Amino acid sequence: MAVKVAVHGYGTIGKRVADAISRQPDMQLVGVAKTRPSYEARVAVAKGYRLFVAGAGHPEEFAAANLPVAGSSREMIREADLVIDCAPDKVGRENAKLYDEAGIPAIFQGGEKAEVAEMSFSALANFDRARGKRRVRVVSCNTTGLVRAASVLAPAFGVDHWEATIVRRGADPMESDRGPINGIMPTFKLPSHHGPDVRTIYPELPIATTAVVVPTTLMHVHVNHVRLARPPGTTAEVVDRLRHTPRFHLFAEWERVGGTPQVMEFARDRAGPFRPDMMENVVWENGIKLDGKDLYFFQAIHQESIVVPENIDAVRAILDLAPDAATSIERTDRALGIPRPP
Ligand code: NAD
Asked: What is the overall mean pLDDT for the chain?
């Protein structure tokens, strides 16, 4: 029987997670909760999702907008076996009381501090550790991208030192009130928080990160320099490892993908029945170079969607719905149309 999953918070991440849940044969979407009526609430209703009122929201506002609501988020949570919190940064920790009250496990997002949960999660890294946990946090988009790369490089080649500069998008595409609109803005926290966040999953990984914010809405890009402990003989061996790992997408030079605009156009062109998103780490074959022990590579991260399959796998891990990570990843990716590695 399908497990019942509620999605609390229906913005950039929540609406993608809800769509993803509704495509999993072993999961049933109880409903989604929002604070205020909006075009997104209208789409949720059109998709047949039950709509609940979150936080300080008022049911009368939804009624005035002709949007049927099924109750409060507390009522939604009561019907669920598990809740995925997709509320804004730091609101999840307030919501945690509701989940405890209902006695059900919860998944939080990367905008929460690691302490909100028993563990931080990324499917390729620590799927099995999440079995039976009450509170799990799926790490942020940038951290997910770095952890996935570490899950390939560290076991195969060992990592002596890793420096990553994170070129961050200024806003998500629909966030018209954020910036910068002009300028390259250093993040004056040195090193940036991403390295310590990666170490919530890989405590021993010697990674240090810095970040700048740039005026784009199309993905983050990581500029990586990794000193390998046991380097392979050729760059091709690194490329091969990445090519054969789920949730990595490699572009060949002949594809003429010069940067993130072409990556996202590719995502729109290939889109199947799921959203035109790019849930894989994007790597350019001609953007990987091994020089002795030094590995250089770029990767692009679609901030709005990379954590979506991770949330689905976290549900399966917590509720013990799959024998291992590979099986869960395979099921999730098939349902979401993420191509399997060759
Ligand atoms: P968002 O602002 O787009 O959406 C938040 C949603 O939560 C809205 O629907 C809002 O109505 C609802 N909400 C407000 N108060 C609430 C409450 N008390 N209870 C439940 N819901 C409430 O935010 P987002 O970008 O989807 O981010 C959600 C989480 O995902 C954050 O932790 C964020 O750091 C993380 N995240 C965001 C991105 C990204 O690029 N947007 C990427 C990875 C992770």
From this structure: 97
| Shared domain check, 151 and 287 | yes
Residues with catalytic function: 141
Beta strands in the chain (DSSP E): 3-8, 27-34, 51-53, 71-72, 82-85, 106-108, 119-121, 135-138, 159-169, 185-186, 207-214, 220-228, 248-251, 281-291, 294-301
* Domain total of the chain: 2
Evaluate whether 35 touches 55 at the Cβ level (below 8 Å).
Answer: yes
The two tokens of residue 133 are 């946990």
Distance 12 CA to ligand 1 centre (A): 7
Full-model pTM: 0.98
Q: What's the pLDDT band for 71 if we cut at 50, 70, 90?
A: very high
- pLDDT greater than 90 at residue 68: yes
C-alpha triplet 97, 130, 307: angle, nearest 5°: 80
d(CA 181, CA 2): 45
- Residue 259: pLDDT over 90: yes
Q: Is the CB of 316 under 6 A from ligand 1?
A: no
What is the domain extent for residue 123?
Answer: 3-139+307-336
Tokens of 267: 């995502």
Average pLDDT over residues 206-222: 98
Q: Residue 68 in contact with residue 76, Cβ under 8 Å? A: no
In this predicted structure, what is the pLDDT of residue 80? 98
